[in-house]
Amino acid sequence: MNDFVPFAPSDAAAWITVPHGESTKYRRGVLGVATGSDQYPGAAVLGVDAAVHTGVGMVRYVGPSRATDHVLTRRPEAVSGVGRVQAWLVGSGISAGSLDELDTATADGFRHASDDGMPVVVDAGAIPLVDLGPLAVLTPHAGELASFLGVDRAEIEQDPAAAALRAASRTGSVVLLKGSATHVATPDGAVRLVASSATPWLAAAGAGDVLGGVLGALVAARQGAVEASGSTLTPSDLAHLAASAAVVHGIAARRASRGGPFPMTALIAELPGVVRDLAVEGDARG
User: Fold this and answer.
1) Sequence-ordered strand ranges (E) for 165-213
2) CA-to-CA separations, 150 to 72, 147, 190, in angstroms, rounded
3) Per-residue pLDDT tens over the stretch 118-142
4) Which has the closest alpha carbon to 192: 168, 228, 219?
5) Assessment of whether the complete model's pTM goes beyond 0.85
6) 58 has which bridge partners?
7) Which domains are delineated in the chain?
């Protein structure tokens, strides 16, 4: 399918939520993060760090003690424990078939993500562990989506646009299919966006964790803003925010790369500059 609409940095600029004189840390959006594990605490650190650098009023981290210690060492402004949030980010660095296999804190976070009625960004590994629906954004890569759909990875890679649409329809959620070009689709197929601002050097461990943090922050910030007027985000909004996150993530990666390899911490360090350029200039270059 070739009817996906290209999504440029100038398009992403409209989805950056800028604080104003009446903003507080709560009105700027609070992101709940239930990611990482004792085995993979780095996933939690990267996601939380990316969210803070993208711009959000507060991050509440919910996870096992080892991951919590790493998160608070890296980002002491994060708050540990469940509380009121405007969005959730769940699943990165977690491998479990049921909530019973999770530590108590993470399982509690997943239950809140299912029950709070707030938008939730779901890493592919967490798809069976939370309630999906129109306020969920799934973020699989081709291999993960192939496993979910029960097809070969080659089929996903041959037609990622069709695969994103199929997954969105099946789950009733917005789907962001990661790849050299990122495809985003709503469950009804009314919104079909493709972003292609990344560099091949971005194909590295931790990239998805960072993308989740960027998207979680953008969603929490926008939800915090619309709540003030008594509104809530729609699947169309979430799709545009997902495409915006892909753009921000890709541009930051290109700036960190400068044509060569880079660590994910270098990508994260570039995020504030990209957000600033989009918010102030209405565009950004890699």
Assistant:
1) 174-177, 182-185, 192-195
2) 39, 5, 25
3) 999 999 889 889 999 999 999 999 9
4) 168
5) yes
6) 30
7) 5-278 (3.40.1190.20)
